[in-house]
Write a structure and sequence with these properties.
Strands 1-3-2 form a 3-stranded parallel β-sheet, sandwiched between helices. Among the domains are: 135 residues, no CATH class; 67 residues, no CATH class; 92 residues, P-loop containing nucleotide triphosphate hydrolases (Rossmann fold). The longest helix has 33 residues. It contains 20 helices and 3 strands. Strand 2, helix 19 and strand 3 form a beta-alpha-beta unit. It is mostly helical. The protein binds adenosine-5'-triphosphate (ATP). The site of adenosine-5'-triphosphate has 12 residues, from helix 17. This is RNA helicase. It comes from Oopsacas minuta. Its EC number is 3.6.4.13.
């Protein structure tokens, strides 16, 4: 060891020399302090005085501990007050260590949150309240807890801030949703991996993996297979789920329970009973009694249809033996009548055109009218004409009709002619050109033809048998022509009393005599006034 190092060691070990050094340095410090304090501001001076006071008090404490009784110089009231305060601080430190710890932890928490703890604030207030200088704020003072009202107020304010709605933009919301979805997917995958974890132990897995690795060093293929297997499982699950949804909401195909029929043979024997050639020696089984049940009774184990057949045969035979001949004949008659009725019912169902006139039923006439669009109103209306041949029109008129080549009557003629033939009033309504003229002419001609011969004299004084009034000259002229077509062949004369034509000629023809007058109203009145026509209707006809 060199002499230089030895000297330093001696310096550190020797207290006497060190004490001297310290006293020297203190002297230097006080010197410096005095010289500096002169040039300092009041604020710096305060801080400096605080430091010097602290160093002095520490040295005093040290002096007290080392057995020195203290300085002999007199103390100022301010120094006394400071000492008292320090003692109080010491007391508070020793008595409330626990409080200090909790306060420290609170302080740390609040620091983390970037806030000033209320305790710190109260701590500062307390210092100020106690009249301490600002330079002494770092000194610990007994901490006063925050008041309950203030605590509640702060809590309410915090809750209010938390409950305030937070408005997010669309992008932020989308970002949050994506992150949430990512978390969910990760969790799901984690769960799936846990579920799909094989049951064998880790050791087995490791050894197997090692073997696989030995067999095929290319692990990508294994990975690929595993992935494929997992995909297959997922696909199967999806299919099952779809199937379940279909069954639930679309009513899937229900498997029908197979119902076993009663007559279904349970067993199939290889041989038929009739093939059995062995003779039963027991007489009881040789002559088996045929069971005959009445009503709906059936023997179990035998075909029901066969039993029914046998039963009906039995009853038929029984009745045939018990019935008398008369009863048998009566039964046969009844059967025949039933058959006829059935045949008739079958016949009636034919169309009216396939039936004769006497076979026409009420239903057929209804259908007939519907077919020709005939509707009637009135009482006891006769049936319409199906054909000229079937009608009650005399042969002579039918010949005229055939001559005019009227093959079938028109609908108005079918219904109006039968009524007219009964000498009844008719109001017939049909469209133009539907044969209304023939509809009233034919019954009129039939009536005139049926009059006795002596009545049909040619006396000029006697009036005509019929007057046909038409509202216009043209219509009257047309009716005259149609009437002449029918009447000329029948020897019935027709005179037209129509305005615009020669009055003298009409008067001459009327005087000669006629059966039918076709007139327009004005010329008819004129003729009556001139006494050319005496009667419109012959009295003796009614
Ligand atoms: N059954 C029939 N078959 C064939 N032709 C017929 C038949 N009945 C009438 N006719 C013919 O039909 C045409 C029109 O007949 P008709 O003048 O009688 O009809 P209408 O109803 O009286 O006409 P309008 O309303 O103009 O007086 C006539 O030429 C007539 O010869």
């Amino acid at each position: 060891m060199s002499s230089r190092y030895r000297d330093r060691e001696i310096e550190e070990v020797s207290p006497r020399r060190g004490g001297r050094r310290r006293s020297r340095s203190r002297e230097r410090n006080t010197r410096n302090h005095r010289s500096r304090s002169r040039s300092l501001s009041p604020w710096d001076r305060n801080r400096h005085s605080y430091r010097s006071r602290r160093s002095r008090s520490r040295s005093r404490e040290r002096g007290g501990q080392s057995g020195r009784s203290g300085r002999s110089r007199s103390r100022s009231p301010r120094e006394d007050r400071r000492d008292r305060l320090k003692e109080r601080r010491r007391d508070s430190r020793s008595s409330s260590t626990e409080n200090m710890d909790t306060n420290r932890s609170r302080k740390n928490n609040t620091k983390d949150r970037g806030e000033d703890s209320p305790m710190d604030q109260s701590y500062e207030y307390n210092n100020l309240d106690n009249g301490l200088e600002e330079g002494e704020l770092s000194a610990p003072v007994k901490r006063q807890p925050i008041s309950l009202e203030e605590l509640l107020e702060r809590k309410a304010q915090k809750e209010k801030e938390e409950s305030r709605p937070l408005y997010l933009s669309k992008e932020e919301r989308a970002q949050i949703a994506v992150e949430r979805r990512k978390r969910e997917v990760e969790e799901m995958r984690k769960n799936q991996n846990l579920e799909k974890k094989p049951l064998f132990s880790d050791f087995d897995e490791i050894s197997r993996f090692g073997k696989d690795k030995e067999r095929s060093p290319d692990t990508t293929e294994l990975e690929e297979r595993r992935r494929q297997r997992e995909e297959n499982i997922v696909q199967k699950d999806l299919l099952k789920e779809q199937e379940a949804i279909k069954n639930r909401y679309l009513g899937g195909e229900k498997k029908r329970r197979r119902m076993r029929r009663l007559n279904e043979r349970k067993f199939v024997f290889d041989w038929d009973a009739s093939e059995d050639t062995s003779v039963d020696h027991n007489s009881l089984y040789k002559q088996k009694h045929q069971v005959q049940l009445f009503g709906r009774g059936r023997i179990a184990g035998i075909d029901i249809n066969a039993q029914k057949r046998d039963q009906s045969k039995f009853y038929g035979d029984l009745l045939s033996t018990r019935r008398t001949d008369e009863q048998k004949l009566r039964a046969e008659e009844l059967v025949l009548r039933q058959k006829e009725r059935e045949k008739k019912a079958l016949w009636d169902s034919r169309h009216w055109s396939d039936k004769e006139l006497d076979q026409m039923a009420e239903r057929d006439w209804r259908i007939f009218k519907e077919d020709f669009n005939i509707s009637t109103k009135g009482g006891r209306i006769p049936c319409p004409i199906r054909s000229w041949r079937e009608s009650a029109i005399p042969r002579s008129i039918l010949d005229v009709i055939a001559k005019l080549q009227y093959e079938d009557p028109t609908p108005i003629q079918r219904q109006a002619i039968p009524i007219g033939l009964q000498n009844r009033d008719v109001i017939g309504i049909a469209e133009t050109g539907s044969g209304k003229t023939a509809a009233f002419l034919i019954p009129l001609l039939v009536w005139i033809q049926n009059l006795p011969a002596e009545e049909r004299g040619t006396e000029s004084d006697d009036g005509p048998y019929a007057i046909i009034l038409a509202p216009t000259r043209e219509l009257a002229q047309q009716i005259v022509e149609d009437t002449n077509k029918f009447a000329q062949g029948l020897g019935i004369r027709t005179v037209g009393v129509i305005g615009g034509l020669s009055k003298e000629e009409q008067g001459f023809l009327l005087r000669v005599g006629c059966e039918i007058v076709v007139a327009t109203p004005g010329r008819l009145v004129d003729v009556l006034e001139n006494r050319l026509v005496h009667y419109i209707i012959r009295k003796n006809l009614f």
